[in-house]
Amino acid sequence: MEEPTIVPPADDQAAFELGEMLGRRQAFGAMAGRCSAADAECLLRMRDQNLFLSRAATWGEFCPKYLGLSGRHANRIIRLLEEFGPGYFELAQLARITAEQFRAIAPAVRDQRIHAHGEAILLIPENSEKIAAAVADLRREAMPEAPTSDERLSTLERRSNQTIAEFQQLLAKNPEGTEKLLLRSTIRQVIATLRAMDLEMGL
Question: Are residues 173 and 196 in the same domain?
């Protein structure tokens, strides 16, 4: 005859679940990027289901004592899970990547693979070199290089010409009164600023 299954009271059940999770992983990595998706999901359950209450009065007290990280850091890991899902942690364990960098390439990370140049690379340690190269390529495509000085000067010249044209259009309307005073004040302010910059350059 089978023995009846004993269902522990709610508080005991919470303590049991918490003990299981802590036993499986006593402390999470110091860096969120080295924390697995399973670790992050455990953190989420501990916090949102109040499982920590069997060991500490507050989440902030529980985290450093039993997890080896601050409550603020634990919350950051949970936010990463909520925003990106497991894909962030799967990739971050194999390649150094910040949350901001992942955000730019997130559409390419799905189904435990990183998709780049028509290839779907499985997120496993054996593919770490290929994964790092794919991340670098995707980041370059998502975050184009800053414009050169010549490009910036060309853009500045175009904008300056547009600004001068706008001043000329306003002057052509023969403004009077307050409008004239405001236009004159703006022109003089621009001239004074540019003159000061000219003197600073020593020209």
Answer: yes
